[in-house]
Each structure stands twice: as structure tokens, then as C-alpha cells.
Specification:
Blueprint (H helix, E strand, L loop, with lengths): L5 H10 L3 H10 L8 E6 L2 E7 L4 E6 L8 H14 L3 E6 H6 L1 H15 L1
InterPro entries: DUF559, Endonuclease_DUF559_bact, Restrct_endonuc-II-like
Pfam families: DUF559 (PF04480)
Organism: Sphingomonas gilva
Length: 115
């Protein structure tokens, strides 16, 4: 599912994660039974967090995802990922910052459903 050059781009994105991404990553790393990767290349895209065995992607959406053509681009991306049998769980950055425990419960419930 990788494209040439996408690994280097993903590596650079790992170095400049947003605060909500850092907070969520800190929690996801603690789970012993489920392993997520950060900024995982997937075709022409880079996924914020990805669990390969469950084919589960978690995207942290900041306010920019509500502006311009971004909603349409996100929809195209989600359709492409769905065709790859990847479930995309979109969570707002605001939700991560204000309700991290609730976000973790949502992710845990989704993992249980996919297992």
C-alpha cells in the first residue's frame, strides 16, 4: 500500500505531530495487545495512526478539515481506504484535547468490534 517517497514524508510528519496527536499517541503506545503505527503511508495518503491487523485508521482532524475543499478530499480519501477494507475513525482535535478518556473508550470499543 506504499508509494515511492511516502516513507520519507511520513517520517518527517512524525517529527511535527500536533499536540492532540502527541497526546493520543502517548495513550495508544501503552496498549500491549494492539499496536498502532504513526503517520503510516497508505497509497497516496499518510494515516495519522494505523493498526494493520485490524485495518483500523485513526485520523485526528483539526479545524482545517472543515474548510475549503478539505471535506470533499477527506471523503475521497475515506472511500479509497474503505475500498482497501480500512475503517477510518475520525476524531476532532478538540475532542482529544477536551475528552481524551472518552476518545480512548471510543477507540477501545471500535477495536473490540473489529476483533
Amino acid at each position: 500500500m506504499r508509494l515511492k517517497g511516502s516513507t520519507g514524508q511520513a517520517r518527517a510528519q512524525r517529527k511535527r505531530m500536533s499536540l492532540p496527536e502527541v497526546l493520543l499517541w502517548r495513550e495508544l503506545r501503552r496498549w500491549p495487545d494492539v499496536r498502532f503505527r504513526r503517520q503510516q503511508p497508505a497509497g497516496p495518503y499518510s494515516l495519522d495512526f494505523y493498526c494493520a491487523p485490524l485495518k483500523l485508521a485513526i485520523e485526528i482532524d483539526g479545524i482545517s478539515h472543515d474548510m475549503g475543499d478539505r471535506p470533499e478530499r477527506d471523503a475521497v480519501r475515506d472511500e479509497w481506504l474503505a475500498a482497501q477494507h480500512v475503517l477510518v475513525l475520525r476524531i476532532t482535535a478538540r475532542e482529544v484535547l477536551s475528552n481524551l478518556d472518552g476518545v480512548i473508550r471510543l477507540i477501545a470499543a471500535t477495536i473490540n468490534d473489529r476483533s
